[in-house]
Amino acid sequence: MRTLRHLAPVLLGGLILAGCSGGSQTDGTAPVTPTAATDTASAAPPATTAPPATAAPTSTPTASPTATVSATPDRVMPALHGRTYEEARAEFTRRGLSAARLTTAAQHKDVTLSRDHDAWYVCASSPRPGAPLSAATTVTVNLAKDFSDCTTSFHGYLHQENDPAYTPPPAGS
Question: What average pLDDT does the segment 140-165 reach?
């Protein structure tokens, strides 16, 4: 009985998968159906033939999108995590992106960015690395003064005592 309990989900999953993969079942089902299904099957091959014909002309002008694809790496969000803000701006310039698109925010709610935050570290960015950048996309980088602070967070606060949800331990403990 116990073995049956453990095998039942496996057997049920196997039956479901067997029903989903049924390439031979579909072929066996098609002749059994009435001639209306055969007419539908006859109509299907021309529809199947039409997309490859459409795909061929699309493939011919692929040279233009390929040229766009070669320019695309410059229009993709670079990985900035772990770099200083100054290095992040230099990476944008190197890729031909305007550094004016970069906006900054503190990584933690209880930290205020200083005016001179060029040496602060990028903890996160929005959009994420690899995301496409349109001409209107503004990039926000979250900065921390020390790189080790990038992984420290108490509900978004750098210092646990600043977290409103924090309850200090009793004084006698």
Answer: 95
